[in-house]
Structure formats: C-alpha cells, structure tokens
Amino acid sequence: MAKTQTRIKAEAFYIENLEITLKEVAEHYKVSQNTVSSWAKKYDWENKRLNFHASPTKIKQLLQQELLQISEGKKPKLPADAIAKLMATLDRLEKKADPVVVHKILKDLDHFIAEIDPDFANQCTAFHKQFLQHRISLEN
C-alpha cells in the first residue's frame, strides 16, 4: 500500500475509533510509532477525532443507543427529560446549516477536486459560491 494511502487509512481508523491509541495505529498498519505521531501532528488527527465524535450525527447516534437500552428495560445513564431536550436540540440543528461551516466544507471539497481535476474544480467552485449565497439568503 502506498504511504499516502496508508496514512489516509490510518487517520480514518484513528479518528473513528475513540479507544485506539497512536501506538495501536502504528502496530495495525505496520508503520513506526514516530511516523504515526508525525502524521497525527501534521494532519491534526486529534482535533479531527474530537470533531468527529462531537458531531450532531454522532451525538444523536449515542442518544439513540441510550434510548434503545431504555426500551430494552436497562437502566438509563441520563434522565429522560435530558434525553428529550438533547434530541429536540439535535433535530433543530440538523435542519439548519451554518453558512461558515458550509463554506469551509465546500472550500475543502474544491481543494480536493483541484488535486484530481483542476478544470472541473473551477466549474464546481462557481456553483459552490452560488449555493453558499443561497444558504446565506435562507438564513436571513
């Protein structure tokens, strides 16, 4: 596996698995621990991991797991009132897109596409700007 592919897979593995350590990533992908540590620092794996696990989707999944346990007669970890309020808040957040976040995601997407096909990236960027303006107008 090419080094870049290994790094990308190792990053995804680390970000998605909260209990995994950098040492375990190194062992799993047969790469030195120093290499994995440098990747983690250079590509900000820790921040990406925190963002991944703090996303509304991930939090909603955890709350849904809590609801499933309660429905199976197990003791809840959170009070029912707190779960209901959190679920309602997450539902509202999922229906609203922050233009700053949309801009960041589209910008990252444009950079990604530009590495593969710069001409197509230019076409996409124009549409992405229009879409962002549309989202901003909906917020007002």
**Low-pLDDT residue spans:** none
The overall strand count is 0
What's the total helix number?
A: 8
Give helix and strand order, one letter per element, not per position. HHHHHHHH
Major β-sheet annotation: none
Mass-distribution shape = flat
| Whole-angstrom Rg | 20 Å
Instruction: Please estimate the helix content.
Output: over 70%
Name the descriptors.
single chain; 140 residues; mainly alpha; 3 domains; 8 helices; 0% strand; flat
Structural overview:
There is one protein chain. This protein folds into three domains: 3-51; 55-94; 99-139. Helix content is 80%, strand content 0%. The protein contains eight helices and no strands. The chain has helices at 3-16, 22-29, 33-42, 45-53, 56-71, 80-94, 99-116, 118-139. Helix 5 packs antiparallel against helix 6.
Give the secondary structure arrangement, pairings included.
Blueprint: H1 3-16, H2 22-29, H3 33-42, H4 45-53, H5 56-71, H6 80-94, H7 99-116, H8 118-139
Helix pairs in contact: 1-2, 1-4, 2-3, 5-6, 7-8
Provide a concise account of the structure shown.
This protein is mostly helical. The protein has helices spanning 3-16, 22-29, 33-42, 45-53, 56-71, 80-94, 99-116, 118-139.
